[in-house]
């Protein structure tokens, strides 16, 4: 079976359990939860039994260890997570505003992952993997971005495949330093996984159908549009499938897109019927939002089947 690689930040998330105005007053917090978009994504891939690995860098501390242990337990090859002595793993504090929106306080500027550089272990992993999952946010850090670009070119040249989740705020897209590498990645992309307005990042002058058509005309094989609580849609040349949202109680939406993407990719790589892969990924996204903590809601196949059975019942 093809082996999936991703490269990027591993961090922990600490979550406020009461809605409020900020962190000015003491409040109950829960965590640390393993986190980082690439980590959540690859954890979901591992839980579905797809061979996979992550390249990252953490401090020699409990925040790094909690991630490594979780990912290893869920089937991810963690040999590419370098442990940097004397450095610290990044963290993020999350709180929910009264209106349900989220506010993040990041502590990653000086995290160990900021000093990630290619090394013999990461080079060997790039050589042994057949698929790379790219997060657009990687290109906001020049060294990480260069590593991701190099891995994408190597894997693609060898006949491997690329999935791409922009995972970006539109303001960042307007930064010329970001634009060039993102355009280069899109040109190599086989599976594009935008969320909401990200569909228009590369095709701003179209409506939804026009943007999809233009993306497919660029040679992208599959476009999967994540629609949050409204479900998801899949587009290939001559094919459209829609997944209606599964009714769930949304407790924590962080990580839903990564769980969705990891699940979809696993089934897509196995050659599962696209509409069925979408249905399973939609279940993974729905289950993800029902758990507090961004990686706590990643699913096994049995858990996906259970949520889909419940939907039928
Ligand atoms: P992202 O985190 O990338 O913005 P979304 O928020 O769109 O991703 O969530 C990814 C997928 O998870 C959605 O397309 C949908 O399938 C599922 N999902 C997200 N939120 C909900 C919800 N409240 N109810 C049911 N399914 C959801």
Automatic annotation (TrEMBL):
Q: Which UniProt keywords apply?
A: ATP-binding, Kinase, Nucleotide-binding, Transferase
Q: According to the entry, what is the taxonomic lineage of the organism?
A: Bacteria, Pseudomonadati, Pseudomonadota, Alphaproteobacteria, Rhodobacterales
Q: What organism does this protein naturally occur in?
A: Paracoccus broussonetiae
Against PANTHER family, the record matches this protein to: HEXOKINASE FAMILY MEMBER (PTHR43085), PSEUDOURIDINE KINASE-RELATED (PTHR43085:SF1)
GO MF terms held by the record = kinase activity
Residue ranges of domain Carbohydrate kinase PfkB in the record: 1-299
Q: This protein's superkingdom?
A: Bacteria
* Designated name of the protein: Sugar kinase
A Pfam family hit? PfkB
- Give the family per the record: Belongs to the carbohydrate kinase PfkB family.
């Amino acid at each position: 079976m093809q082996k999936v690689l991703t490269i990027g930040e591993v961090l922990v998330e600490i979550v406020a359990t009461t809605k409020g105005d900020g962190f000015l007053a003491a409040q109950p917090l829960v965590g640390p939860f393993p986190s980082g978009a690439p980590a959540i994504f690859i954890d979901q891939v591992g839980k579905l039994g797809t061979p996979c690995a992550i390249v990252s860098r953490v401090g020699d501390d409990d925040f790094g260890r909690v991630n490594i242990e979780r990912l290893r337990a869920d089937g991810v090859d963690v040999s590419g997570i370098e442990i940097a002595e004397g450095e610290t793993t990044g963290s993020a504090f999350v709180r929910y505003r009264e209106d349900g929106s989220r506010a993040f306080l990041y502590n990653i500027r000086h995290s160990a992952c900021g000093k990630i550089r290619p090394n013999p272990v990461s080079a060997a992993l790039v050589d042994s993997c057949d698929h790379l999952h790219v997060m657009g946010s990687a290109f906001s850090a020049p060294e990480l971005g260069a590593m991701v670009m190099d891995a994408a070119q190597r894997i693609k040249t060898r006949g491997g495949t690329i999935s791409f989740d922009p995972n970006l705020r539109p303001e960042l897209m307007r930064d010329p330093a970001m634009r060039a590498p993102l355009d280069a990645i899109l040109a190599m992309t086989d599976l594009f996984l935008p969320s909401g307005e990200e569909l228009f990042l590369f095709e701003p002058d179209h409506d939804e159908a026009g943007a999809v058509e233009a993306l497919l005309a660029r040679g992208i094989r599959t476009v999967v549009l994540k629609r949050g609580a409204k479900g998801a849609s899949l587009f290939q040349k001559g094919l459209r499938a829609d997944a209606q949202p599964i009714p769930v109680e949304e407790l924590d939406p962080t990580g839903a897109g990564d769980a969705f993407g990891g699940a979809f990719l696993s089934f897509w790589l196995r050659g599962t019927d696209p509409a069925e892969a979408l249905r399973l990924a939609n279940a993974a996204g729905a289950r993800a939002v029902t758990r507090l903590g961004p990686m706590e809601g990643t699913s096994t196949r049995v858990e996906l089947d259970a949520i889909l059975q419940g939907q039928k019942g």
